[in-house]
Design brief:
The complex is a heterodimer of chains A (122) and B (185). Chain A has 122 residues and is an alpha+beta fold. Chain A is built from four helices and three strands. The longest helix of chain A has 24 residues. Chain B has a five-stranded mixed sheet. Chain B has two domains: 32 residues, no CATH class; 98 residues. Helix content of chain B is 38%, strand content 29%. Classes of the chains: A alpha+beta (122), B alpha+beta (185). At the A-B interface, α1, α2 and α3 of A face α1, β4, β6 and β7 of B.
Chain lengths: 122, 185
């Protein structure tokens, strides 16, 4: 009887250990800071290239072109929410793309400050 | 005074007798050396197996945790190195001369030059002291370049890079979009 109890205890122990180990196996490197730096880089690149001077629809071709280049370099999707600027057409970010990180920024459009959200998704 | 057998005695039965003219006590010891019950044996084997299993699981967990921590540390170091390169080490800068310090307006320990983060000066990137960065960061190998790491398999120290990250930057006066690759291990 005692050996049977011990065997059952062993089985329960193995089961509990496998349950405990399962989430540990799935842990990945924490790259949240790097993601934030990456989206800041993309914003900074657009800024350095003058995409936010006289910001507006007139700049669509230039901004879209730069976003395309960024998308080509990184294989990521960039969205300027609140505007139509993106390198990934066809559906909103929430519908088709997995969002990675977002930044709140203010741009000047027609002389007025406008808050936009710059997002990166897969 | 009673003196029993040395080690294996587990039971003692004592009795006293009252013979005519003489009263004495006597203890008899029963030895059980070498006796193991089957029930105890069959209980001990699974317990030993469980202990072994717990120890092996603990060792495995510790090993995995150490590997994960080492990988995270390497990744964080590379992120820091890349941030330094993009914001200061290879960033284009204007101004900042010795006369600024001599004038007393700027303390000697403060750099008066203006850096442009993410705008890379390729000459500064080429002359970057990667070996010093590697030593300061405590990395075994480090590779910093604007070229894709596939084209350069070996790092400056000759070791193959294990982790690679990149940062988005612009190069040159025409501000063409590119990437800086930082790899190491």
């Amino acid at each position: 009887m005692q050996s049977l109890e011990a065997m059952l205890s062993l089985i329960v122990l193995v089961w509990c250990a496998s349950l405990l180990l399962a989430p540990l196996e799935g842990q990945r490197t924490d790259d949240s800071l790097y993601r934030l730096q990456l989206v800041s880089d993309a914003w900074r690149v657009l800024y350095l290239r003058g995409d936010f001077q006289d910001f507006g629809d007139a700049k669509q071709a230039q901004i879209d072109g730069d976003l395309e280049t960024l998308g080509y370099e990184t294989a990521l999707c960039f969205f300027l929410e609140g505007t139509r600027f993106t390198n990934c057409r066809g559906g909103g970010q929430d519908q088709k793309h997995e969002p990675l990180v977002s930044l709140h920024r203010t741009v000047v459009e027609d002389g007025l400050p406008k808050e936009v959200m710059f997002s990166v998704g897969k | 005074m009673q003196t029993g057998p040395s080690r294996c005695d587990v039971r003692a039965s004592c009795g006293c007798r009252n013979n005519p003219g003489r009263y004495y006590c006597h203890c008899r010891y029963h030895r059980h050396c070498g006796f193991i019950s089957f029930d105890g044996m069959f209980s001990l084997i699974p317990i030993a197996l469980m202990a072994l299993f717990v120890m092996s699981i603990s060792a495995s967990l510790l090993r995995d945790a150490a590997e994960r921590m080492e990988k995270q540390q390497t990744f964080d170091k590379l992120v820091s190195v890349a941030d330094y390169v993009v914001k200061s080490g290879a960033a284009r800068s204007d101004g900042g001369s010795a006369s600024d310090s001599a004038s007393g307006l700027v303390p000697s320990f403060v750099s008066s030059s203006v850096h442009y983060p993410n705008w890379i000066d390729e000459s500064k990137l080429d002359s970057l002291d990667v070996e010093k960065l590697r030593t300061d960061a405590g990395l075994a190998s480090l590779f910093v370049s604007s070229q894709r790491p596939e084209s350069i398999q070996k790092t400056s120290s000759g070791a193959a890079a294990s982790v690679c990250i990149y940062r988005l930057v612009v190069f040159g006066d025409d501000k063409r979009i590119g990437r800086i690759f930082v790899c190491g291990g």
